[in-house]
Amino acid sequence: MFAPIRPGMHAPLTQSLRALAELALPSSCAACREPGPGVCARCSADARDALWAGGPRWSSPDPRPPGLPPVTSTGRYAGALARLVAAAKDDDRRDLVPVLGDLLGEAVDAALLQWPAAQAAWRDRAGPVLVVPVPSSRAARRRRGDAPMTLLAAHAVCDYAPTEVMLTDLLRPRRRVADQAGLSATQRAVNLEHSMQVASRWQHAVPGALCLVVDDVLTTGATLVEAARALRRAGASEVRCAVVCATQRRGGATTSSLHSAYSR
């Protein structure tokens, strides 16, 4: 029997932050830069305020781009939580992997629980769900020496059996793209269109597969749309997405409980 999958499988943010505070290496808070632990008590409280009440939710940008799969997020991209996400990626704060990996893990748990095809695949022993991090650009990977999303994803799925989920670097960039910062939703979509492809060594694994794309932030949805397009083109049967947090744009991205979202 497979272990039951349930929301909240991962440690809550408070536990992760407490463990992080005990690390000796960080000398400043990743969110406010004040001297002290990796995340100070004030920023910990602020980050908790950004989490959705009641657990992960279905989220969608407004306007919702065509081709965007269902996306589950754990909170709002706001305040200290937004600064922690940025620090993990842009400031090389890899000490934040346990914190953000747990939050991504809660979104993954909830997405899989509410995905009928995934539940059926586990019941019928039809193979694992492929968890696919959004790829870093080649330049970013060379500069950082690693891929932050792959690290977060590995932490997020560490409690699953190999028969349940498989973390794979399926996607790779196929061309260079411009910096997304400051671009409109339309400009982001054009910038990312046909910018990803399935790596040749994984081509055999995609046809008929269930793929869960993971990323840190849902903004306009352009990145997830492009990832889903590349996977569908390679033959994926279904694609869904899970992110740490979602931005609130133009009056707010729409969110709803997972039950109501997936029962429509």
UniProtKB/TrEMBL annotation:
<dbReference type="InterPro" id="IPR000836">
    <property type="entry name" value="PRTase_dom"/>
</dbReference>
<dbReference type="InterPro" id="IPR029057">
    <property type="entry name" value="PRTase-like"/>
</dbReference>
<protein>
    <submittedName>
        <fullName>ComF family protein</fullName>
    </submittedName>
</protein>
<comment type="similarity">
    <text>Belongs to the ComF/GntX family.</text>
</comment>
<dbReference type="Pfam" id="PF00156">
    <property type="entry name" value="Pribosyltran"/>
</dbReference>
<dbReference type="InterPro" id="IPR051910">
    <property type="entry name" value="ComF/GntX_DNA_util-trans"/>
</dbReference>
<feature type="domain" description="Phosphoribosyltransferase">
    <location>
        <begin position="201"/>
        <end position="249"/>
    </location>
</feature>
